[in-house]
Amino acid sequence: MKAYQRKLDIRNGCVDLSHGSGGRAMAQLISGLFHEAFGNEWLARGNDQSAFDVGAGRMVMTTDGYVVSPLFFPGGNIGSLAVHGTVNDIAMAGARPLYLSASFIIEEGFRFADLKMIAESMGEAARTADVHIVTGDTKVVERGKADGLFISTAGVGVVPHGLDLSAENARVGDRVLISGTLGDHGVAIMSKRQNLAFETEIVSDSAALNDLVAKMVEAGGRGIRLMRDPTRGGLAATLNEIAQQSDLGFHLREEAIPLKPGVAAACELLGLDPLHVANEGKLVAIVAPENAAPVLAAMRAHPLGRDAADIGEAVADDHHFVQMATSFGGGRIVDWPSGEQLPRIC
Amino acid sequence: MKAYQRKLDIRNGCVDLSHGSGGRAMAQLISGLFHEAFGNEWLARGNDQSAFDVGAGRMVMTTDGYVVSPLFFPGGNIGSLAVHGTVNDIAMAGARPLYLSASFIIEEGFRFADLKMIAESMGEAARTADVHIVTGDTKVVERGKADGLFISTAGVGVVPHGLDLSAENARVGDRVLISGTLGDHGVAIMSKRQNLAFETEIVSDSAALNDLVAKMVEAGGRGIRLMRDPTRGGLAATLNEIAQQSDLGFHLREEAIPLKPGVAAACELLGLDPLHVANEGKLVAIVAPENAAPVLAAMRAHPLGRDAADIGEAVADDHHFVQMATSFGGGRIVDWPSGEQLPRIC
Amino acid sequence: MKYADEFRDKEIALGLAKTIRAEADPQKLYRFMEFCGGHTHAISRYGLEDMLPKNVRMIHGPGCPVCVLPAGRIDMAIRLAERPDVILCVYGDLMRVPGSQGTSLLKAKARGADIRMVYSTIDAIRIAEDNPGREVVFFAIGFETTTPPTAVMIRLAEKKQLENFTVFCNHVLTPPAMQNILESPDIRNIGRVEIDGFVGPAHVSTIIGTAPYEFFAEEFGKPVVIAGFEPLDMMQAILMLVRQVNEDRHEVENQYSRAVNRDGNLRAKEEVSDIFELRDQFEWRGLGQVPYSGLKLKRPYAIYDAEVRFDMHELRVDDNPACECGAILRGVKKPVDCKLFGTVCTPETPIGSCMVSSEGACAAHWTHGRFRDHQQRRVS
Amino acid sequence: MKYADEFRDKEIALGLAKTIRAEADPQKLYRFMEFCGGHTHAISRYGLEDMLPKNVRMIHGPGCPVCVLPAGRIDMAIRLAERPDVILCVYGDLMRVPGSQGTSLLKAKARGADIRMVYSTIDAIRIAEDNPGREVVFFAIGFETTTPPTAVMIRLAEKKQLENFTVFCNHVLTPPAMQNILESPDIRNIGRVEIDGFVGPAHVSTIIGTAPYEFFAEEFGKPVVIAGFEPLDMMQAILMLVRQVNEDRHEVENQYSRAVNRDGNLRAKEEVSDIFELRDQFEWRGLGQVPYSGLKLKRPYAIYDAEVRFDMHELRVDDNPACECGAILRGVKKPVDCKLFGTVCTPETPIGSCMVSSEGACAAHWTHGRFRDHQQRRVS
Amino acid sequence: MCLAIPAEVTKLLPDEMAIVSIDGVSKEISVALIENLAVGDYVIIHVGYALTKIDPEEAMRTLELLRELSAEGQGAAS
Amino acid sequence: MCLAIPAEVTKLLPDEMAIVSIDGVSKEISVALIENLAVGDYVIIHVGYALTKIDPEEAMRTLELLRELSAEGQGAAS
Ligand code: SF4
Ligand code: SF4
Ligand SMILES: [Mg+2]
Ligand SMILES: [Mg+2]
Ligand SMILES: [Mg+2]
Ligand SMILES: [Mg+2]
Ligand SMILES: [Mg+2]
Ligand SMILES: [Mg+2]
Ligand SMILES: [Mg+2]
Ligand SMILES: [Mg+2]
Ligand SMILES: [Mg+2]
Ligand SMILES: [Mg+2]
């Protein structure tokens, strides 16, 4: 391509409406900022779509929109999150994530410097997860019509032969494994919200779990019934969903659930249940009892599963309750979160 | 699934923050509104990703974000547009679109009734285009942090063996074919913008072009070098892009370019160049000269290509100019649009 | 967490449970009301019910200031927030509380009212400073615990000479409500279950002290034990109540001595009495009008009173007649006795006060205890 | 489009081109300035240059009110728009016009200034009515064509008693600018190309009529032909100018008689003279200070004058010294003679007035005519 | 400068407003600057205002003249 | 009701504010309601205000009593 007039002023410049209007300014933003950060052969061809070869088999596809606020948080930013989240939804099917697409919706006035940092985080997250961002789109909306930046990523991957992980696959007697401590992402985010502002060492757990999943599949094979990443709504929402879809219930042991003291403290401060708080680098696996031990061992051998734990089992229950033996010695339900997670005073 | 408490009040209700927070309200919105509208076996399984079988070969993937305002416009709405646009980007590779994902970013206060209409339009557009919306995501942001509704769709499809359409493939001497009248979508949208408000019979051309493309590929085979849908930035941006990527220039004949009188009039009124105005159901095909006639015939035989025309040719040009012989008899450049398309007074 | 974890010890709990079982007379029924939602929450959160003998039964009182706020006051707040000049600042708990006809602050916000969630009254002051052209109203709710922070905020607004700042005051008092439960005329319709003792408020008592309960224990002949919100605090208090009943005493005892004394927080009480005065009566959702149970701003502080500045008029909304909250709060019925429980009425779409916050009797049972209604086998 | 399509007829054009070629003396050079950007646009849009003989050369004048607005006035507008109380209403053309240091209204908007694009002055009135708590300022620009709509709007604001509405007036007049081109002292530095005749404004003349050019034709001895903006209008006017030159006449002729007469639009002129008066001088980008070339609001309308209400101070920004606009506007140089053309200066990032709107000489050449600089073969 | 196009008046409205039509595109404009306007008249519109009426006879005369001038050229050397 | 948790005062700030810490989570709160506060004290915090100081001796005494009462049960019939 011939040089476009002046270079983007990354340090001081910001996105304006001309960067979304299909003219030279947009082409410059895309090639000068996004392609540079994601750099790969597919984007370089400059088409509105990208092509790749696949072998015959089973593929999975997923999408998620990222609207996190603040955009930068301890442990990551919206860019790395947008890669991890979508990679993880692919990985939860036991699949190997391959290609991602990225759709950017940018509010006018957004600083190039921030956009570049975010794009670079995406590029790095993609390289680490061994996936490629092969196609994308950029829209710019007027000030006040977005919240800085939204990213929607979609992803595709391939499932190893014979693997069919799905929410209806849990069976009574299956074990519930969790890959590590809960609530880190949600607490890291909340610590930076203006009205809550508290200080904590907790950083988001945002990470790509595909490699961990590969090791688990190796160890557990078809004994793994299903996996899910407990994001919005936390472990509570995830297990309630699975209970409904698999038509059973769960019994958990609170003592077994890994939780950082700082996360517990922040949740007490805000009146939130850590089981309702979002995670972005954790997974729940429902595993046949005979495979639980090897899968758990494989998890613990992986850096992202060091704190993995067996936290309970699937039980027959027409009411689909997720019950929990509290660490105090009683029993309770772990219900869906109701509505937005708001800090409580009561 | 067990019944969720009260039904969504589609007629009077609206989205609030609880519909994006991972709890029961969100599950209800998704199953009660989106799944109903898109209804298919993949969504019914309720996973965070969907799996499907593919044969070995070449696949394409694309994404686009839709931020159109107003959301409802003559000839469609953001929902049908989000399907057509992504289907078309797949089709432009000569591929058969198969599966779509949909990411919704919704501003709190958005009316269920509107959301339902939009979802139903998406479902219908998908059925017409013979694609399936197999996975999705819903986020809700605070009032003032979005513009009602944004949709990002991604899509995958398969390319027939031996076809490799790409922007760098144009050759000197190739013909430039366009599938119909230009500017209909942009003018239909602008006619409903508050400050421009004019009345016109023009409706958006928003449509899925995959069937048209299939017929063209049948007729033209590998003589089709590349196709592109002239969306944002219009025909001007599309041809300038291709000129740069294929390292050549174009010569167009203005007389040959199909244009509705109402579109021409609206553009004169606003001081816009119709070649800069967006289309959502048109394609440009760069075709080897010997294949141009059969491809054009195939286009004209299709309802979406009735007004197809041969509007010019690719020429050698180090400067990558898109030149045009005006209908008045002179010559001019058809340049990229510069910045946002703003109505002019001068 | 120091001063919390120690009071959640499972081993101590197991022994304490045995002590309670040993001391509770199997021939007797012990019906204790925990007034506070904090205690209700602890019971359900830690599964305390599973650790008490069957004849020790806890009755969940009306002690959640969010739950007891009547729909009419929510409607008033919504009407205020819908004014384009107004920014309404609220504690997060209030967002889902139902007003009339299925409305709520959450829905009003979705429809365009400028409603901001705050964590502290100090945030509300900051919002007022940041928005000089707008009217910032703080939606004040809460018992004696939450009132002093509102008082401090009004002092601060005075000091900063904020002219765009007012308070919509909904502060209420606990002793009149406890009294109402035992003697309100409604009891004739609802019936009454004998209450054998009260677990008294924890954090309310840090402010008002234990003295105010003395009249109460004497007048009604009921034992009262002030208890902390940790589960061992609760169990100890229950044991103390069992002992009082067994010994036929009705005294005020203080289990929560690490934070509560007889006089309370004098400085806080003084701030409150400087700024607030009693209303003749105030409506409690589930209880109806309760005399001398609510606070309003004193005359000299009327410029900070949103009800004065915006000429707000009392709105009254009848409670849903099918809602059994009144009977539940008085121990006559249980949540499952209500036809609406878990069908029309859930935490997502609460109908009555007991379902509104996670500390209401119905919400606590729905969220944490419901499995017991269908119990096939015990979680262990 | 009636009254437009007929005047774009290719067949007539071909004959007319031949007539011009036949009548233009090959020994002579005909240098005609079209004052108006509308004419410049028609030339480039329809490729008129390809239809004229080589010795008939068009010089693109300063006739685009957007282009000639100096950077200082843009800076003033941005400073105003950055006030949180102000909503600035502008015609879309203005958004990309450069102020100092690479700024523009588009960028100011991106950084948070509340700037609204309007199509008509009537929209600005509506915005003022819809935002009673804000100050709505209309950024008025334009020649005699665009001034009457501003006048009507001020009348309307008066009638509606709008108190939050003002006008930032930048209206300018064409005859003083035409005069400046021929006699300004700058010419000594820039040098001058002889201009043999003027294509006179089309729509400006619908308002002011042809009379004002009579003094001009006489004083400077230059033929003037008022022409419509359609390409055949232009070609006819060029033929008429060729004939005047050949016959050594210097008259005002009216090619655009279907819309223009000698007196113009009396009602519009009256509205304008009621409300506006001349400034002593006004800066034009590319031309510098031009005496009696700008308008301001008369004293009785000062309450609608943003410069008065907001105590705005004139900001002066020097033009980029490398920019050759001054010479280009006077016909001494061509866009390609400027070192910045197409490198630093493009329509996306314009440096000088001639690149600002699509009607500027440099922008028109970049956008539509550039291929001729590298022409290998003729488009046909 | 001064983008303006011819449009037909199709309806007169109160408050000196009118509807004009251009090849099926219709728009509300102000006619406050025009006297004696009738439906069927053509006006030149600019920034939502009619600037002047078009004189149909003059238009026809110009067009005839254009044809003549063109014919002169066609008759002349090619 | 009245969500409140124990926190350690780690720093006193001007304007009757202070920093408290709970297991590594620290937060700025108002201590306008408390007299004679020192770093190292534990307070009960509620809606960003300290309501009262915790008396460490009373806490220890309660805990001892709890252990005794528990031991009574452990000694009693199982
Ligand atoms: S379930 Fe709902 S309606 Fe029934 S008593 Fe409880 S709060 Fe009232
Ligand atoms: S190219 Fe730009 S800098 Fe050069 S003369 Fe034209 S406007 Fe001025
Ligand atoms: Mg997903
Ligand atoms: Mg996900
Ligand atoms: Mg795109
Ligand atoms: Mg997931
Ligand atoms: Mg695309
Ligand atoms: Mg596209
Ligand atoms: Mg999702
Ligand atoms: Mg495309
Ligand atoms: Mg409001
Ligand atoms: Mg402003």
Briefly note the structural class of the backbone of chain A: alpha+beta
Proportion of residues in helical segments of chain E: 25-40%
- H/E element string of chain E? EEEEEH
What is the number of domains of chain E? 1
What's the total number of strands of chain E? 5
Q: In oligomeric terms, what are we looking at?
A: heterohexamer
Could you explain how this protein is built, in words?
The complex is a heterohexamer, with two copies of chain A (346 residues), two copies of chain C (380 residues) and two copies of chain E (78 residues). Helices cover 30% and strands 24% of the residues of chain A. With 346 residues, chain A is of the alpha+beta class. In chain A, α3 packs parallel to α4 and α6 (210-220) crosses α9. Chain A is globular, with a radius of gyration of 21 Å. Chain C folds into three domains: 5-63 and 175-254, HypD, alpha/beta domain 1 (Rossmann fold, 3-Layer(aba) Sandwich), CATH 3.40.50; 71-172 and 264-309, HypD, alpha/beta domain 2 (Rossmann fold, 3-Layer(aba) Sandwich), CATH 3.40.50.11740; 325-367, no CATH class. Chain C has 15 helices and 13 strands. In chain C, β3, α4 and β4 form a beta-alpha-beta unit. In chain C, α1 (10-23) runs parallel beside α11 and α2 (37-46) packs parallel to α15 (361-369). The longest helix of chain C has 16 residues, at 231-246. Chain C starts with 9 loop residues before the first helix and ends in an 11-residue tail after the last helix. Chain E is of the alpha+beta class. Chain E has one domain (5-72): SH3 type barrels. Chain E has one helix at residues 56-75; strands at 5-13, 17-22, 25-30, 42-46, 49-53. In chain E, strands 3-2-1-4-5 form a five-stranded antiparallel beta sheet, with no helix packed on it. In chain E, β4 and β5 form a beta hairpin. The longest helix of chain E has 20 residues, at 56-75. The model of chain E has no long low-confidence stretch (mean pLDDT 93). The chains are: A alpha+beta (346), C alpha/beta (380), E alpha+beta (78). The interface between A and C is large, with 33 and 52 residues. Chains E, F: One of its GO terms (biological process) is protein maturation. Chains E, F: Involved in the maturation of [NiFe] hydrogenases. Involved in the biosynthesis of the Fe(CN)(2)CO cofactor. Chains E, F: This is Hydrogenase maturation factor HypC. Chains E, F: Belongs to the HupF/HypC family. Chains E, F: InterPro entries: Hydrogenase_HupF/HypC. Chains A, B: Residues 171-323 form the PurM-like C-terminal domain.
